[in-house]
Design brief:
Blueprint (H helix, E strand, L loop, with lengths): L1 H23 L1 H7 L17 H8 L38 E2 L5 E2 L8 E6 L5 H16 L7 E7 L14 H11 L5 E3 L4 H5 L7 E5 L5 E6 L4 H13 L4
Parallel strand pairs: 3-4, 4-5
Antiparallel strand pairs: 1-2, 3-6, 6-7
Length: about 240
């Protein structure tokens, strides 16, 4: 009876700890970074692929529904990635416009490390990590240095009412309200979301200076985690 009593207490404590880690995003961060890229991340709050599926249905993904298979196994193993693991980032030539009307594509950032963050205005974990992403952007040279920080949003449009977020005007109002100064690309067609198979928020991809996927995390990141994955991608050494 005494053994069972203490076992129940210990088990309850462990469940509480695991629950806190799951809610804060730590569990996802610990388990998913540098994991195999072959499968899409599991949803955390709400499916985020409605607009993406619509994009695939009408050919917006260039006829390829498996664009993110290019990153299969990109994050597995320890130490520097082998040549067999190197996979190019999908849709590197796709041009998207940010909240300020400036055009961006991954191709133009060859030679730099890219922190690519998919998010939504209604997502609580996304909102909590925004200040740390903003800090990362400012501390690392505001995209003028070796690191480029990019957000990607999927606002609704008249032709795509099932996209994952509010209207583009409302997304831009949210950006202003939160003081976001790093570029947030407006993926109104869902092509980028589809190509990277985004089904949960936030999801962050790390792309190395050669334009290859180094790894991804599904879940909220802390400032320390951001610095760690940036440094790992820049050095090519996984910890």
């Amino acid at each position: 009876g005494n053994v069972v009593k203490y076992t129940v207490k210990v088990g309850g404590t462990l469940l509480i700890v695991m629950g806190v880690m799951t809610v804060t995003g730590w569990m996802n961060g610990v388990t998913s970074y540098l994991s195999s890229f072959g499968g899409a991340p599991a949803a955390q709050e709400q499916p985020a692929d409605q607009g993406a599926d619509e994009a695939k249905g009408d050919g917006a993904n260039g006829g390829s529904s498996d664009a993110s298979d290019a990153g299969k196994d990109a994050g597995s193993g320890d130490g520097a990635a082998s040549k067999a693991d190197v996979q190019a980032a999908p849709l590197a030539d796709l041009k998207l416009v940010d909240q300020n009307g400036e055009e961006h594509s991954l191709d133009e950032y060859r030679g730099k490390t890219v922190f690519l963050n998919f998010w939504a205005t209604w997502c609580g974990p996304c909102q909590r990590e925004i200040p740390d992403i903003e800090k990362l952007y400012r501390d690392r040279g505001e995209n003028e240095g070796d690191l480029v920080v990019l957000g990607v949003a999927n606002p609704k449009t008249d032709s795509r009412p099932n996209n994952s977020d509010v209207s583009e005007a409302d997304v831009k109002a949210f950006i202003d309200e939160r003081g976001i100064t790093y570029p947030v690309l407006m993926d109104t067609t869902g092509e980028m979301f589809s190509g990277y198979r985004i089904r949960s928020f936030p999801t962050t991809f790390m792309i190395d200076k050669d334009g290859n996927i180094f790894g991804y995390i599904s879940g909220m990141l802390t400032s320390e985690m951001m610095d760690s994955i940036v440094d790992q991608t820049m050095t090519g050494v996984r910890k």
